[in-house]
Amino acid sequence: MTYPLMILPFVALTIVVTGVSAVRPGFGRRIAASALGAVVLVVLTAIFDNVMIALDLFTYPPEHLSGLRIGLAPLEDFSYPVCAAFLIPAVFALISRRKDSA
Q1: Residue 56 falls within a domain, yes or no?
Q2: Three-state secondary structure call for residue 72
Q3: Domain total in the chain
Q4: Predicted pLDDT of residue 102
């Protein structure tokens, strides 16, 4: 199995759960915060993955990658932090109790 195929369920789950969370209050603010968080996580991933790969701390079998890279880091590495930036707040919004508007 290739890494791009492995991330598809995570991306699909993130899209579905984030979409379902749109009915909860503060969706626009949450998406803006998630987008900002995703940018920060992508920058940090780019820095640290490139350093770790350059130091030969780990490698990826090239036959399992898409071939797209940001520096030395395969593009697939960036999907997990982006999914986390959107999925975690969406799940939290869905499981949080609604505040009574009294």
Answers
A1: yes
A2: coil
A3: 1
A4: 42
**DSSP conformation class of 26:** T
The CA distances from residue 87 to 13, 33, 59, 73, in Å, are 8, 12, 27, 23
Mean pLDDT across 83-93: 97
Q: What element of type H or E holds 74? A: strand 73-74
Torsion-angle region of residue 21: left (phi > 0), alpha (psi -120 to 50) or beta? alpha
Cα 4 to chain centroid distance, Å, stands at: 14
Q: Are 76 and 4 in contact (CB under 8 A)?
A: yes
**pLDDT tens by residue, 60-81:** 888 888 888 988 999 899 999 9
Q: Residue 48: inside a domain, yes or no?
A: yes
DSSP state of 64: G
